[in-house]
Design a protein that fits this description.
Blueprint: H1 20-23, H2 26-46, H3 52-63, H4 69-76, H5 80-92, E1 96-101, E2 104-112, H6 114-134, H7 140-157
Antiparallel strand pairs: 1-2
Length: about 160
């Protein structure tokens, strides 16, 4: 009996890696890295009992130019109904307070409480640590270059993130 053996097929890539064509795509890498960054952020913020969307609300309030619910929602690109839920949770935790606008009873004015300011300071430190950890393979020059390139892309694709001119 004559048995011929076929040469073993060797994979052209490791089963732990994504296909080369995908990894060579900048769009694919941006999406995957965005998912990775979001996952790390969500996990870290979850440990604080807050959500990254709430962090955005606190930052908008700290800026001082967004004092009404509508202005906050518009500045962050949040659905107004979604914002109400986020503000409810922040208010329950004592981080923001809302009151009717005396000049227009239909509007709610929102402001940070002292606890909200303290929490924002902690969340900013957490956000900075997340960014430093994520960008750890890059030196300061590479980080600045990456940020500059992302801002250039934002000018076309997400103008609200583009630098002020």
């Amino acid at each position: 009996m004559n048995v011929t053996t076929e040469p073993a097929l060797t994979p052209t890539h490791s089963p732990d890696r994504l296909p080369k064509e995908l990894v060579e795509s900048t769009m694919f890498l941006l999406k995957r890295l965005g998912f990775a960054a979001k996952g790390k952020s969500m996990a870290a913020f979850e440990a604080t009992g807050l959500h990254p969307y709430q962090f955005g609300v606190l930052i908008a309030l700290a800026e001082g130019s967004h004092e009404t619910q509508g202005a906050i929602a518009d500045s962050l690109g949040y659905d107004r109904g979604q914002l109400v839920g986020l503000l409810d949770e922040l208010e329950e935790r004592g981080l923001v307070e809302r009151k009717r606008d005396p000049g227009d009873r239909r509007r709610q004015l929102v402001r940070l409480t002292p606890d909200g300011k303290r929490t924002l300071k902690e969340l900013r430190a957490l956000s900075k640590q997340l960014e430093d950890d994520f960008l750890e393979p890059l030196d300061a020059k590479d980080r600045a270059a990456l940020h500059a390139l992302l801002l250039r892309l934002a000018e076309k694709h997400e103008p609200r993130c583009a630098p002020l001119t």
